[in-house]
Structure formats: structure tokens, C-alpha cells
Specification:
The protein is an all-beta fold. It contains no helices and 16 strands. The chain has three domains: about 1-60, SH3 type barrels; about 65-125, Nucleic acid-binding proteins (OB fold (Dihydrolipoamide Acetyltransferase, E2P)); about 130-185, Beta Barrel (OB fold (Dihydrolipoamide Acetyltransferase, E2P)), CATH 2.40.50. It has a six-stranded antiparallel sheet with strand order 1-6-2-3-4-5, with no helix packed on it. A five-stranded antiparallel sheet has the order 9-8-7-10-11, with no helix packed on it.
């Protein structure tokens, strides 16, 4: 058992019979009254985000997790299949455990979090930024770059994002996997 003074980003705890990861936290000490910790937690089983306030000194159950590197192999109707980079063991995950699955490219290296108590996979995390190729987009008009206008584009994984007008078919772009959005064009 730990208390609220040990809360930090990325900490996994048990709350309401579920495993949550702390996304944001803030220790608050008002001028009047007791201190408390305001948190934003994400369920690792359902993906639901929950805002919660713990009183200072409240006891919490920390869940020990292990992060392992896996390579994405393929997906089918059984789920998404990954291979451990060290032992070459394969594991499959359900779609609900994967955030932004449409950005997964075959051969991509990802992190899978496992609960060390029973060795069950909790969630899969993509790197913060990935580079993908544009397979289809309407051509931009010459000189139409003064505004912040964007157009739809299809990536090599089949995902659709919004990109600036100067991006063309065949360009490599950097994608933020948390927001599923365009960051910049990658120089070849």
C-alpha cells in the first residue's frame, strides 16, 4: 500500500476493481481546508478516462507493470499479433487494448504493458511519433499555402488524417500518435 504522495504520471493503480494509469495529476493545497490530489486516470482495460480527487494521505494500491518491446506482425479477425523482440514468442491482443490501431504498420516496434502479478497484457503503446507515407491525397494548388487550410489524406496503413495543402502523394509525414494528427513533412 502506498499513499497519494507517490502519485506520478504513468503510475498504474487499482481503483474500483480496475487498473488505471495516471495521465495527469496535481497536488493542491488550498489556503483553507485539507490538501488533495486531483488526477486524470485512464482505464487500461476499457480505455475510459476518469477524473478523480484523492484526499492527501489516501492509501492507493500500486500495480506493478512491465514494459516489453514487441514487433507488430499482422492483424486478422482474431486480433493483432505481435512478436517479442528478445524471445521471439508471439502474443495477440484484442482491438480494445490498442489505441489508434489504424496507425500500426507491419514491422513497427511498440511497447506492451503487462501486469506482473498474472502476466496479462494491459495495453499497447505506440511511439509518440511515427513516419508514414501518403498513399492518396488531392493535389494542392500552386501558391495556396498562405492559409492554414488542410485537406484529407490517406496513409499507407489506411488511416485518414488532415494535412496541409502542400503535402503530395508519396510524401513521408511525421504523425503524432496520441492525437492522430500531422506534425511535419519528413525530408527524404
Amino acid at each position: 500500500m502506498a499513499n497519494t504522495s507517490e502519485i506520478k504520471n504513468g503510475l498504474c493503480i487499482t481503483y474500483n476493481n480496475d487498473v488505471f494509469s495516471v495521465v495527469e495529476f496535481q497536488h493542491v493545497k488550498p489556503g483553507k481546508g485539507a490538501a488533495f490530489v486531483r488526477t486524470k486516470m485512464k482505464s487500461l482495460t476499457t480505455g475510459k478516462v476518469l477524473d478523480n480527487t484523492f484526499p492527501a494521505g489516501h492509501k492507493i494500491d500500486i500495480v506493478r507493470v512491465e514494459r516489453k518491446k514487441y514487433q507488430f506482425l499482422y492483424s486478422d479477425d482474431m486480433g493483432f499479433h505481435f512478436m517479442d523482440e528478445e524471445t521471439y514468442e508471439q502474443t495477440s491482443l484484442e482491438v480494445k487494448l490498442i489505441e489508434n490501431a489504424q496507425l500500426l504498420k507491419e514491422g513497427a516496434v511498440v511497447d506492451i504493458l503487462f501486469n506482473t502479478a498474472d502476466d496479462t497484457p494491459l495495453t499497447m503503446e505506440l511511439p509518440q511519433y511515427i513516419n508514414l507515407k501518403i498513399t492518396y491525397t488531392e493535389p494542392g494548388l500552386k501558391g495556396d499555402t498562405a492559409t492554414n487550410a488542410q485537406k484529407p489524406a490517406t496513409l499507407e496503413t489506411g488511416a485518414e488524417i488532415r494535412v496541409p495543402l502542400f503535402i503530395n502523394e508519396g510524401d513521408m509525414v511525421k504523425i503524432d500518435t496520441r492525437s492522430c494528427s500531422y506534425v511535419e513533412r519528413v525530408k527524404k
